[in-house]
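Input record, target 12 of the design panel.
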C-alpha cells in the first residue's frame, strides 16, 4: 500500500511539474462533409477547415490527462466483466464469426511463414526500398508470411486477412450516431440512436440485413428539416481492403446518400468517398478530398474524370472526382439487379475503387478470400505518383449517411429532372419512399504490410508524440495501475 501511494504521488508531481509535456492532436471525429458543388458555382465560399492548422500540436490539459485515466479505467472494467470494447471494432466478436471465416487462410499463412526467415516488418521495409530505388533486389525464394506465392515460390502480393465484419444485429454496436447540424447546409435533421431505433429509421429486417432510412411518413412545412441517420465507426483505419455488399442504396429527388471514410481534423487526414449518389442518378461518384499537394493522375482506371485537384481549398471543394459509367452502380437500376459490391483498396499502391454488379461479383469476394490483383482495372484509382497517400490519408472512421439538398444535391437540382425546388420537395414524405439502405455486410481486410506499418512509417512528425509526451502517457497509464493497487 505504501509503495503504491508513493508511485501515485510521484506521478502526480511529474504531471504537475510538466503540464505541457505531452502533445496530441484532437481526435474529434469531424462532423464535416464539405462537399462539391459544380464548378459553375465556384463563387461559393469554401467552408473553413476544422481544428488546428497543419502540424500545430495541442498541449494536453489536466482535464485531458484525467480523461485518459478514465479511459484506462473504463477498459479495465470492461476486461473484468469479460466484455469487448466497442471502440476496437467488431473483430472476432463474441460469436467468433471472423475466426471461423479466417481459419483456413490463417493456416495457409502459418505454413507460408514457416522457414520464411523474414518478418513482415522487414519485408515491408525491403518493399519500400525496392520501390524507392526503382530496381529489384535479390530476395529469398521462401514465401513471406501473409503473402501469396507464385509457382516458383517467390513472394508476390500480400494475402488479405479478414479483420472486421460489420453485419447483422451486432452492426449497431460499433457505430455512433452523429447528431450535429448538417455540415453540407441541407435541411437534414440527423437523429440520435434512440430516435432512429424508435421511429424505424435504423433496424435489422427479418433477414438480419441492416436498414437505414430517411423519414418517409412526416409531412413538413417549407423550411422544416427531415429526419435521417448518419453513423460513424468507433474504430479508425489507416489502410485496408473495404468490401461493402449492398442490396440497395437510397435515391430520390434531393436525396444525397454516401458511404465514405474520413480522418480527424478534416481535411488534414483526408476523406475518401467510396460511394456517393445524388437524386435519381444511376451512376456512382468516387471523390477524394485533401490538403494541397494531391492530384489525380489520369490512367490506370476506366471511370470518367470530373476533376483532378483534390485540394479542398479550390474549386469549391469539388475534390478529385471520378464517375462510374456503369448505369447500375447507383439508384433504381442497382436495386433492380439485386445490388452489388463496392470495394476500396487503400495501401502503398494508392487508393483504388471497384464496383461489381450482383451478377459479376468475383468468386474470391463471395468466398471471403479477396484478391484484388485478379479484379482487373479499377473504376477509380488515386496513384501515389501524384499524391502522397501516406501524408494525406490516415486514421479514418467509416461513415454512412443520407443527406438532403445542400451543397451538392441542392446545387444540381435544376438539372436533375426533378420537379419544383429541392427545399419544396423535402416537404413531401412520399418522395423518400426509396431513400433507404439495405446493407448485407461490410468487411474490412488487412495484410502483413499494413500490420508492419507500411502506411505509418513516413507520417510527418505531427503524427508522432514527443519524448516527453510519451513519458506523460506512460505516467497516466501507471497512475491507473497504482490506483488499482490502492
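The sequence produced for target 12 reads:
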Amino acid at each position: 500500500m505504501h509503495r503504491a501511494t508513493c508511485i501515485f504521488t510521484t506521478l502526480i508531481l511529474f504531471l504537475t511539474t510538466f503540464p505541457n509535456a505531452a502533445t496530441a492532436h484532437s481526435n474529434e471525429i469531424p462532423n464535416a462533409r464539405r462537399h462539391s458543388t459544380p464548378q459553375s458555382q465556384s463563387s461559393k465560399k469554401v467552408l473553413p477547415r476544422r481544428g488546428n492548422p497543419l502540424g500545430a500540436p495541442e498541449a494536453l490539459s489536466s482535464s485531458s490527462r484525467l480523461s485518459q485515466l478514465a479511459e484506462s479505467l473504463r477498459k479495465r472494467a470492461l476486461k473484468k466483466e469479460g466484455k469487448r470494447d466497442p471502440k476496437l471494432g467488431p473483430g472476432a466478436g463474441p460469436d467468433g464469426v471472423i475466426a471461423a471465416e479466417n481459419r483456413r487462410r490463417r493456416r495457409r499463412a502459418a505454413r507460408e511463414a514457416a522457414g520464411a526467415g523474414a518478418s513482415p516488418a522487414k519485408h515491408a521495409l525491403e518493399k519500400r526500398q525496392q520501390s524507392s530505388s526503382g530496381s529489384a533486389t535479390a530476395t529469398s525464394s521462401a514465401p513471406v508470411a501473409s503473402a501469396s506465392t507464385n509457382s516458383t515460390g517467390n513472394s508476390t502480393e500480400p494475402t488479405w486477412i479478414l479483420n472486421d465484419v460489420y453485419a447483422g444485429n451486432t452492426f449497431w454496436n460499433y457505430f455512433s450516431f452523429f447528431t450535429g447540424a448538417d455540415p453540407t447546409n441541407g435541411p437534414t435533421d440527423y437523429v440520435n440512436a434512440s430516435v432512429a431505433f424508435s421511429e424505424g429509421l435504423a433496424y435489422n429486417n427479418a433477414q438480419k440485413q441492416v436498414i437505414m432510412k430517411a423519414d418517409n411518413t412526416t409531412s413538413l412545412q417549407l423550411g422544416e428539416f427531415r429526419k435521417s441517420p448518419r453513423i460513424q465507426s468507433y474504430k479508425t483505419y489507416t489502410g485496408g481492403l473495404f468490401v461493402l455488399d449492398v442490396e440497395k442504396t437510397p435515391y430520390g429527388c434531393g436525396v444525397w446518400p454516401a458511404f465514405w471514410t474520413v480522418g480527424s481534423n478534416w481535411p488534414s487526414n483526408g476523406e475518401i468517398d467510396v460511394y456517393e449518389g445524388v437524386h435519381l442518378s444511376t451512376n456512382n461518384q468516387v471523390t477524394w478530398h485533401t490538403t494541397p499537394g494531391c492530384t489525380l493522375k489520369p490512367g490506370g482506371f476506366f471511370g470518367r474524370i470530373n476533376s483532378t485537384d483534390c485540394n479542398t481549398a479550390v474549386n469549391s471543394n469539388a475534390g478529385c472526382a471520378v464517375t462510374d459509367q456503369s448505369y447500375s452502380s447507383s439508384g433504381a437500376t442497382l436495386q433492380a439487379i439485386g445490388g452489388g459490391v463496392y470495394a476500396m483498396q487503400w495501401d502503398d499502391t494508392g487508393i483504388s475503387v471497384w464496383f461489381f454488379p450482383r451478377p459479376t461479383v468475383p468468386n474470391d469476394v463471395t468466398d471471403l478470400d479477396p484478391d484484388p490483383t485478379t479484379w482487373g482495372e479499377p473504376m477509380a484509382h488515386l496513384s501515389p505518383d501524384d499524391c502522397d497517400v501516406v501524408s494525406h490519408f490516415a486514421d479514418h472512421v467509416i461513415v454512412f449517411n443520407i443527406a438532403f439538398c445542400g451543397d451538392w444535391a441542392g446545387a444540381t437540382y435544376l438539372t436533375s429532372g426533378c420537379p419544383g425546388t429541392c427545399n419544396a420537395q423535402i416537404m413531401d414524405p412520399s418522395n423518400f419512399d426509396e431513400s433507404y439502405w439495405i446493407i448485407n455486410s461490410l468487411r474490412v481486410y488487412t495484410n502483413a504490410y499494413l500490420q508492419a506499418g507500411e502506411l505509418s512509417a513516413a507520417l510527418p512528425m505531427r503524427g508522432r508524440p514527443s519524448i516527453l509526451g510519451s513519458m506523460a502517457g506512460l505516467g497516466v497509464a501507471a497512475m491507473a495501475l497504482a490506483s488499482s493497487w490502492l
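The first strand starts at residue 23 and ends at 24.
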